[in-house]
Specification:
Elements (H helix, E strand, L loop, with lengths): L5 E8 L5 H11 L17 H6 L6 E8 L5 E8 L7 H9 L3 E7 L6 H12 L3 E7 L8 H12 L7 E2 L8 H11 L12 E10 L3 E10 L2 E2 L3 E4 L5 E3 L2 E5 L3 E4 L1 E2 L4 E5 L13 E4 L18 E7 L5 H14 L4 E7 L3 E8 L2 H14 L4 E3 L6 E5 L4 E4 L11 E16 L3 H9 L4 E8 L9 H4 L3 E9 H5 L2 H8 L5 E11 L2 E8 L2 E2 L5 E4 H18 L7 E7 L2 E8 L15 H21 L6 H7 L7
Parallel strand pairs: 1-3, 1-4, 4-5, 5-6
Antiparallel strand pairs: 2-3, 7-8, 7-16, 8-15, 9-14, 10-11, 10-16, 12-13, 12-15, 17-19, 17-20, 18-19, 21-22, 21-23, 23-25, 23-26, 24-25, 27-28, 27-29, 27-30, 30-31
Helix pairs in contact: 13-15
């Protein structure tokens, strides 16, 4: 197809603003999906996506639309996630497009992720089309929200398109606007072939299937491809487009979005961000690709049955191919056995990966408490990353510890300002600025109207504070109205200490924590209290202690199980009873010196809940 008749675009919005529903209407209008096969959230094929009502993976689909000028255009749509933890999926989709639809809910207005995704799209220099969705709802306030769009993003009122994705009204006009306002791809059809891999999946019959955007030249089914980063070559098994199911074609030309079945079996041979070219007429310069992502949250994944370790490794490698933001390295724990230390973009990302492993690969997992990576400056001047308390050097070996810090943007109704400030103050955050978002017809009116205005608050906060139930607290204190977006900004020095947990005077590395000095005492007490009820009683007293270095900050004792040695004494001299009790006392003293306390897995699992308390 002529590149001038191709349009590549994606849909960006805050979570639950109607991206997937709008994509459903596009599939119906263009006849891409037959009416008898149509279902809600058609592109969200993953069971987990349909259950939660959110998009986790970006989906590509090729549609054909007849514009008012009489010509037929090929529209390549990539539907993107809206949750902040999956912003990497959004950035990969933006790199494969020339334009984007910015969807805003007419009843909720601009949210935090709306602002973040728009700034991301502007960074890729995309042409944006603002779309106001859900205008048919009784609580919709289109005039107010259009005023917000004008104030925050600078769009003109006549640029905004009004649509009800559920009813389908206005959806056809959006497709016409895509043809009119979004430019065609600017590649060179005569140049050597170059295609950007923006996603990939593993198929046991066809090997790695790379989702690609052809930048220059063309890729044919009969060609032999080369991966430019590794130099590996392979015979193409199949090329095709998403319609929306994979549909084989003879070739993919400049500007088109589709897939290539490479036949590679090793997941490391073709990764996201690679450039594919034709082996017989190879390009010399690869495409820019993507910026490597830094994991924000770390947790250990262990199989509950040690024999499943190999299956867990294979599942994680295949999942990593489909989710480039997941990082992993082998780890061994004395308590939990062999497993992996995995890096995630956030708590939602961790939760989704865990569920996908359990459902898609039939694994039973134990997940350790999430932590963050600290930057430690050693006395020699070397700077190392520490993502587990067990890896932290002793205090005399380092000079500083720096913790990761986030820039937070919170958008909420103005009546919750006081509640939000109280929450943020308790999380060691620094206030940056606050701005009221209100349209011109609201500004300056009665106090009742101004109360309905919304406020955007910006803070700087340590990432570790977000792990301790922050998101649930934010939602509960604002009755679900607040929205959150965050970006990693760097590291900051903090008075952090390592809190060791000692059971029967022996440290248990798997229970160690890195905490702020002000929170160490309270957190240490909660941990030893929880362990006291979890560790089974022995024939001797078991002290459980929390310590910073050599200083004990909290202690609990698991009482000994007392055997009734006097049961066989039915009378006689009291000295006989005293002799039996003294012998029992001596035996317990010897047992306490040589006895070993086995900590059950339940103790590690119950500690996962401690971080969210207080």
């Amino acid at each position: 197809m002529n590149p001038s008749n191709i349009r590549n675009f994606c849909i960006i919005a805050h979570i639950d603003h109607g991206k997937s529903t709008l994509a459903d209407r596009f599939l119906e209008i263009t006849g891409t999906v037959r009416p008898q096969e149509m279902k809600a959230q058609f592109l969200d094929q993953m069971e987990l996506e349909r259950e939660r009502g959110i998009t986790i993976k970006g989906k590509a689909v090729t549609m054909y639309h007849q514009a008012p000028d009489g010509q037929t255009y090929q529209l390549n749509l990539i539907d993107t996630p809206g949750h902040v933890d999956f912003s990497y999926e959004v950035s990969r989709a933006l790199a494969a497009c020339e334009g984007a639809l910015l969807v805003v809910d007419a009843s909720q207005g601009i949210e935090a992720q709306t602002i973040a995704n728009t700034l991301l799209a502007m960074g890729y220099d995309l042409d944006l089309i603002p779309v106001l969705n859900k205008v048919d709802l009784p609580q919709a306030e289109p005039e107010r929200v259009v005023g917000e769009i004008e104030q925050v993003f600078g769009f003109r009122r006549d640029e905004v398109l009004f649509v009800s994705a559920k009813e389908g009204t206005g959806a056809s006009a959006i497709l016409d606007a895509v043809v009119e306002r979004i430019p065609p791809p600017g590649g060179q059809p005569a140049a050597p072939a170059r295609a950007l891999v923006f996603d990939s999946v593993y198929n046991q019959y066809k090997g790695i299937i790379a989702h690609i955007r052809v930048e220059d030249g063309a890729i044919s089914r009969l060609d032999r491809i080369r991966v430019m980063s590794s130099g590996r070559t392979a015979e193409i098994v199949e090329v095709g487009v998403f319609a929306p199911a994979p549909r084989p074609t003879d070739r993919l030309e400049t500007g088109q979005v589709g897939y290539v079945a490479t036949g590679f079996k090793d997941v490391r041979e073709c990764t996201v961000g690679d450039t594919l070219t034709i082996d017989r007429a190879a390009a010399t310069e690869p495409l820019p690709g993507y910026v490597p992502l830094k994991s924000m949250v770390f947790a250990g994944l262990y199989p509950s049955d040690g024999e499943q370790y190999g299956n867990l490794r294979a599942a994680l490698e295949k999942l990593q191919l489909n989710d480039a933001s997941l990082s992993l390295e082998p780890e061994n724990s004395a308590a939990l056995g062999f497993g992996f230390r995995c890096g995630f973009l956030g708590l939602m990302h961790l939760e989704i990966v865990q569920e996908r492993l359990e459902r898609e690969y039939d694994l039973d997992l134990i997940v350790t408490a999430p932590s963050v990576a600290y930057q430690v400056t050693l006395t020699s001047g070397e700077v190392i990353k520490v993502d587990s308390p067990a890896k932290l050097p002793s205090p005399n070996e380092y000079t500083d510890i720096e913790e990761p810090v986030l820039d937070l943007t919170i958008v909420a109704p103005s009546r919750y300002v006081g509640t939000l400030m109280e929450l943020m103050h308790s999380r060691r955050s620094d206030f940056k600025r606050m701005e009221y978002i209100q349209s011109e017809d609201v500004a300056g009116l009665s106090s009742g109207s101004v109360d309905n205005a919304r406020v955007m608050m910006e803070y700087t906060m340590p990432l570790v504070e977000m792990l301790a139930d922050f998101y649930n607290q934010l939602k509960s204190r604002t009755q679900g109205y607040a929205s959150l977006d965050y970006t990693f900004v760097g590291y900051r020095k903090a008075p952090l200490v390592k809190v060791d947990v000692l059971v029967n005077h022996l440290p248990v590395e798997a229970l160690s924590m890195i905490l702020h000095r002000d929170q160490a005492l309270g957190q240490g007490r909660r941990v030893v209290e929880r362990l006291r009820t979890t560790i089974p009683r022995q024939l001797f007293e078991v002290p459980i202690q929390a310590a910073i270095g050599s200083r004990i900050i909290a202690r609990e004792t698991v009482r000994a199980v007392r055997k009734d040695v006097l049961a066989k004494c039915y009378g006689g001299d009291v000295t006989r009873k005293r002799k039996l009790l003294e012998r029992q006392k001596e035996g317990k003293k010897r047992l306490k010196m040589v006895g070993q306390v086995e900590i059950p897995q339940e103790a590690f699992l119950t500690l996962l809940e401690v971080g969210g308390e207080g």
